[in-house]
Amino acid sequence: MPFSAETCVAMHIGDRLEQQDRVGLFAHPKRPGIMLAVLADGMGGHSGGAVAAEQVIMRARQNLETYAPLHETPRDLLASVIDEAHTVIKLTRFTSEKDPHSTAVAFLLQQGKAYWAHCGDSRLYWFRGTDTASRSRDHSLVAELMRKGRLDEAGALRHPQRNVLLSCLGSEREPHIEYGVAESPDAGDSFLLCSDGLWSYFTDFEMASTIQAHPPRIAAERLIQLARERAGGAGDNISLAIVKLVPPAADASR
């Protein structure tokens, strides 16, 4: 079934002194129907994390502008965004006293299909109505302990090393990138990119049902408001992007 996309990006500084998350949504400048959403959660001391996250967004915008789908695959584009941002972030360590790092999650909508890639613990959710069709795997210590059966979800949220990442951009090791694809997304599906400042406070069903029930902007406002309430004055930076697939306008009017 044909569909169109309703979108929204949103951020909140939380209870931090600085916003080190970045999020962007870009359309291809020459090819209709191609859209790229990207989100990065920066780390690395005062301003260092913001610099790292900004590099992810800049690389995404620039690479999309030169993306030629007749000669490149969606995976080529997504990999180039993360790999090239990783290289630039590493280079900034030699020109500053900071130690910048960042997560990255990128989502591409092209010719009726959806593709995504991620590194770190910023997440990509694919919701089919209120069901979770897919969710990216965190590259973190607690996620690895959970996969080995040594920690449950409640324990992961309280673990003193819950923020330790096993892979990210800017580290000495090359980033571990995982990919996903939705071959036949349909109206009623939605995709959520978000940092841990958001997903830490919700079940999958809560986020899916909020996005299902509201237009993206209202859904984003409600999710941020509730995350702030649940954080109790100790909330991290929040960033998210929502891509909600809906019937084309003509069908909706009928």
Overview of the structural elements:
This protein is α+β, with helices and mostly antiparallel strands. It has one domain (4-253): PPM-type phosphatase domain (Phosphatase 2c, domain 1), CATH 3.60.40. The chain has helices spanning 48-65, 74-92, 141-147, 153-158, 196-199, 204-213, 216-231, 249-253, and strands at 4-12, 21-27, 34-43, 101-102, 104-110, 113-119, 123-128, 131-135, 178-182, 189-194, 238-246. The strands form 2 sheets. Strands 2, 3, 4, 5, 6 and 9 form a 6-stranded antiparallel β-sheet that branches. Strands 1-11-10-7-8 form a 5-stranded antiparallel β-sheet. The longest helix is centred in the first third of the chain and has 19 residues, at 74-92. It is globular and about 50 Å long.
